[in-house]
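Troubleshooting: if your tokenizer reports a length mismatch, compare your output against this known-good record of 366 residues.
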Amino acid sequence: MLAVPKLVAPIRKALGDTTPESVQLAASGPFTVASLEVVHLYNVGMEQQFAGKTEEAFKSFSKAAELDPNFARAYSGMAATAAGLGRQADGEKYIKLAMEHLDRMTERERYHSRALFYIMMGEYPKCVEEYSSLVSQYPADRVGQYNLAFCYGQLRNIPKAVEAARRSVEILPNAAFQRLNLSFLSSLGGDFQNGEREARAGLQINPSLVVGYLNLAEAQMGQGRMSEAVETYHQLEKVSGKGASMAATGLADLAVYEGRFTDAVRLLEQGAHADLAAKNSESAADKFAALAHTQLSMQHEVQCMQSLTRRRPWTTAKRYKSGSWRGGSLRSLEKSPKRKNWPPASVPSREPNLKPTAKLLKESLL
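Known-good structure output:
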């Protein structure tokens, strides 16, 4: 086994680092791997993850774990990238594997692993606590600032989330995900101009990132530029299968905002069936839930119940407790300069006999 901090200490000295070896080792703590190849694969995975190459990063982390089954950092990487690919159940599985090897981590990595575990479990106050402790000791930690912004966002503390996201961008100005994180949070806080600016900056770095188009469309919608948002969603459809799936949801959101409920139902129906054909069951479940909500708004109680019934077989036993980051489209619309048009006139003002269905709908989304 290789004791990595002790191995790296003379290299750091040769590169001009004057920190005493004893201090380096004390700060690093226990960190051993089976080979340098494992360390290389892990570092490659990290760079791929920050470049937005999530699938490739997952493969690199998986290879590192295969070569050294006791390497906790590899499991943490697999957890984060699996969740990024929409495979939440796999993400939970891998972070639990990482937690089994906390004794092999440095203090810094223990902060990371515990915080990521809390993200997976939806325990965001504890996530904030762990990442806040981490960045207080390591202010330039790129992952810490990025994920701290995410956790503050889940707690709807948007000013703190934007602050952490800005620091993350300052650390890595050429990282697409950092830009897009700041974009999303800016729009969520009502700063749609900055949301658009950061979304375009992120897409310029990596034009294949689905989230970039989502953020851009939401920022455009928040500024009342609906036709531009539609065009952005159509661009997203061409990026990938995942992009087409998320574009369908975004276009349906926009249709609901404009009072075109029939169009929204059609888009969600088609999107859900396409997701099932692509074996993307969780996305299909989300669309059936959105479909039920739309039908409830139309006072179509029977169809709403049918959509909930169709959703249940495709819902994993445990989803993130606070729900998804997405769904920001309608939040953007609520803050839009055209807010006076919300809700659309075609939304019925009365809700006769819908309370039991609404209660069931709410419970089914937990």
